[in-house]
Amino acid sequence: MKLTRGQSGQRGIPMPLWLQGVLESAQLAIIVAALMIVPVGAVYFSNGFGNQPFDSAARLAGQAWLLVHGVPLQISVATGASSAELHSGLLSLIPFGLTLIPFFFAWRAGRRLARASYTDQLWQALCGALLIYAALGFATGYICSDHNVSASLLMATLVPLIPVALGLVIGARREAGSWGRLIGVDTVERMARFSQRSRWAGSYLWSVVKAGFLAVIVLMGISALIFAVNLALHWADVVAVYQGLKTGPVGGAALTIAQLGYFPNLAVWTMAWSSGSGFAVGIGSSVGPLGTSVAPLPAIPLLGALPVGQLSWGVLALAVPVLAGLLAGWWFLREGENHFDEWLSIKVPQRWLSASLSTISLALLVGLGAGILAAVLAWLSGGSAGIGRLSEVGPQPLNTAFWVACEVALGVLIGSLVAPWLEGARQRAGLAEDFEPFEEAE
């Protein structure tokens, strides 16, 4: 067995990669569990759960751990005079702001495992990390399930691997610097084996995908800003709900942490709102840019920021996805990978016809990509918040995809027409600065 010399100068046996993956994964699970236990324990010791035993609070922390990792929970509540009458529902509304916690810790672990592995050995560390995390998820689902809240053992085993695996792979890729160093396959060399036309087609489609991604990122950024401004404008209503709950400092802090976890979800809902498709806060409700129609809502402070009634200015929000598409079309022109337009200009002698066809095709493709990504975000951000009316919360994925795709496509059309003029003005400004006469030395 080969012995190595560590930083201390002492010789020793190197740690197997699978064991290092196990330790990194266990450390990750313990850190996330501690972050769940601290607020739940603070509420418990401040008598926030009444006369509930300590094991109930411990199970609640484990259930929060599962929910943060994306595991849906089955809830059963006794109603009526007889406790035998149970109403059940599914809690699948995932707080993606808190899901980022295990993702970023896994990203850090992936970088550490990549530094400790050779190119053809990283799979050992990743397998060890994922196997132990699956085992911990199974154990948490088994121990923390009771007659009121339970989780499927299969879901508790497999679903937590999704954010962890993404974090491990992305972190390892970040440390390696390229997929070739990470998995031993040189993608550039493999692409060089394809014909020139195949490489041009691939470059065009990849640029279209990036343009659609850029449109959604811009749309999400503006939507998050709209949400922040709306929250500031309705801050008095939010504070009034806090005061009505009378949770105390510890309970208020725990409630605030839970609501912060749903901020990314609310940003996606705002994106759906600005597109015109809107979102639901309960069965039969509708929150859109032209008006809001909801039934009485539970006392959750953030829900106090919902716009109410008819909005005379709400139609202006429909311009946000169009603006995102305009920027995506401008970026695509600057990327310089419009090989489909070059091919059409050769096949179709009439330039006005080839340019029109390539621009329309570009708008449809970018809009389709943005719509698919928006549908995925809408599906992930929504779900069921429990029992009754709140079993339907969030935007409808297909409606959101349709509206975002149409508006982004319109923006790409406008951007493709305006971008040459903007680039010409930018280049003329740059030439004017380059040829500005120098002042003569005295």
From TrEMBL:
Alphabetical UniProt keywords: Membrane, Transmembrane, Transmembrane helix
Classification via InterPro entries: DUF6350 (IPR045931)
Transmembrane helix as UniProt keyword: yes
Superkingdom as given in the UniProt entry: Bacteria
Transmembrane intervals: 21-45, 90-110, 122-143, 149-172, 203-229, 311-333, 353-380, 400-422
Entry protein name: Membrane protein
Organism: Psychromicrobium lacuslunae
